[in-house]
Structures are given as structure tokens and as C-alpha cells.
What we know:
The protein is 56% helix and 14% strand.
Amino acid sequence: MAAQSDFPELRSLFSKNREVIKMLKAEKKLTDKQIYFTAVYNKLGKKINESKDKTSLTAFTTVINGRYQVCQPDSIIITWHNYDTDEKLFEYTFSINKASRDLTETEPMTQSGFQGLGEAEVNSLVEKRLTEMRQKEEYERIKEEHQKMCNRVSELEDVKQQLEQDIAAKETMESYMKIIGMALPGLSKIFGGASIISMLAGTDEPAKPEIAPAVTEARPKDEREEMIAMLRDYMTEELNQQEVATVYMLFMEIQKDKTLIQKILTHLTTTAST
Length: 274
């Protein structure tokens, strides 16, 4: 089996092959098995032989040494390909000076924009690509963190708006209760200190109103007081908390516009007659 030491003039070729493979792995993210090469052997400016099969990188030394020994070319064009897609990845021409038995390189002929690079340049390129990859990963991480923070801010804004609405509703309800309390102080006994909000929701049971002893209860002085007493007893004994709260809200609207009393009565009598 041919070794790299069999033909010293080809050593630079084998060294260049290692550099190119290293660059392709870093640039294209390929493995050895995903890269194959072809070679064209020239002499006096004419092609005298070429390899047409997908030759594995593991056979590079053996194939090049064997063909060189048989053909004795003065230049070799090596082309590296993607094994899966047959894409031409890199191409380079090597000239062989038979007199000095030393390898010199001609200007590269590339198909994918690559230029001939030495080992230092290849290492620099690899490091640059790795740095770009790390920067991209950091950018993606920061971008993801930023999106999470934006989502959290949006959630907190929704909570803030809901709290503001609850506070506004509470302040409005407390204002209404103060107005009704001043206008109709007798209603406070009916509600027994229960929250108007909870009563409207029907979640709390009303406190039992205090009932004065029968011996001290005064009889209504006239028909008006008797009707008020009947209304109070009805709401106390017959209505649940939610129903009492509804009547309470009705009183609030009537207190603002007393003409609603007649309108409600007209509506009820009309509905009953139909």
C-alpha cells in the first residue's frame, strides 16, 4: 500500500488536503463520510487521466500515489464534493516540478468562492466561524429571553387593568352606598352590614335584622307608615340577599329620578292587563 512518504513531492498536496477538509468541516458542517474527491491528471497542458468514482477521503493517499506513479503527471486538479448532493465544494490545482521534485501550487480555481489558504489562514477562518456561531447562539438566547419578558409584561398589564377595574367598581359602589345611606337610612337595617357586591352576587347570607320585643313595637300611626313596615317585613322575611340587593339598586335609580315610580307602575299594570 502506498504511503505519503513514497513520493516526497506530493507531501504538500496531502498537507493541503488536510487543511481543505478541516475548512470544509467548519464551514459546511460536514463529516469525512459526507465528502468525496475526484482528481484530474494533466501533462503538458493535456488531461491524461481522471477519477470518475466517488472516492472516499480515507483512500486519498493511496489513490493519488498510485495514479501519480502510473501517469507521471506534471499537475493534478483535486476537487472535493458533497457526497449526498454532489455539490462541488472546493477545487485546487497542484503543479509538480519534476526537476526539483518539489511541489509548488498554482493559482486556485474555485467553484464556491474559496481561495487557496495556508494552515494559519484556515485556522483563522475556523476560529472566525466558531465566534460567529457563538454570537448567533447568544443572540438567539437573548432574543428568547426578551420575548419571555415581553409576554410577562403583557400578563402583568392585564392584571393591572383588572385590578384598576375592580378598584373603580368598588369605589363606585361605596359612593352609591353612601348616597343611599344618607337618603334612606332605614335600609341599613335591612342589609345588616352585608357587602352590596356580595349581595348582588348572592354569595353571602344577610345578617338577621334585630327585631324589637313585641311589647315595645309601636303600631303604625297611619297608612303610609303601615305600608313602609310591610315593605320592610317583606324584604326581611321573603327576599334572599341577591333579591334584596336588586331592590336596593332599584331604590338607587328611583332616588335619582322619582318619576320612575309611575313609569314602573304603568309598565307593570299594562303588562298584567295584556
